[in-house]
TrEMBL record:
Its cofactor is FAD. The keyword Transferase does not apply. It comes from Lacticaseibacillus mingshuiensis. This is UDP-N-acetylenolpyruvoylglucosamine reductase. Coiled coil: none annotated.
Amino acid sequence: MTETGSFGGLSVHLNEPLSHFTFTQTGGPADLLALPTSVGEVQQLLAEARAQALPVTVIGNASNLIVKDGGIRGLVILLTKMTGVTCDGTQLIAEAGARLIDVTEVAYQAGLGGLAFAAGIPGSIGGAVFMNAGAYGGEICDVLASAEVLTRDGQLKTYSNEDMQFAYRHSLVQDTGDIVLRATFALTRQPRPQIRAAMDHFNSLRASKQPLDYPSCGSVFKRPAGHFVGPMIQQSGLQGHIIGGAQISEKHAGFIVNLGGATASDYLAMIHYVQEHVAAKFGVALHPEVRIIGSDVAKG
């Protein structure tokens, strides 16, 4: 970690490279990086940022994220220390920084089914709610009962599933900028062996199809209606293509992996390269599923 300072009475890291946290192992520095451990600390950080008129960026597990090489101005709040998970009957309540992988294990131990589809997704609860994450026929919107959020002006709110306006890889908080603090899931009682079998099945599928042995940001593009991204990239002759340290995975063409030394600019160049070639061959516009944030230019 870089040197630390004080921000609203809380410790923050100064000019911390975000490549230390992203799954692509790329990304420039955050001016200020805070790792709060409670809702109160998030409120405190947000209040101080408002007082100083600083922009605020919130990051979860940084698994489906590209931070540009210029880094992020202002305050970055990383929620990975807010990891509490509890069960209350058939409800499971998880804080925003809890990893889906860990949360699905808690659900299994409690004999609660419905989250097995997420067993191998590397993201956090907050990020999963933010983007309505899904895999193998399941989505967060299928099981979310409510989400507790903090608005940018400091108000605590609770949104129901309906309030969240879920759609494919979309939720209300993408539009409002509200910070997801915790989520409550409505699950069902299931025999533990049945839950474990489903989790093992999905994890086996993931291991057989996805390039888990290299850093990546997961699935890069949203699935266009009536098409599959990987086959289109393959049929465009792009699989294995390399730009800088980034490569279209030879195992799954829908992934871009870091072979070593890749930059965020390499990733962005590859995304644009794929978009151009697939549009030329199929007339299909590919839109990133991965969240792309930050500045193209380093802090002066």
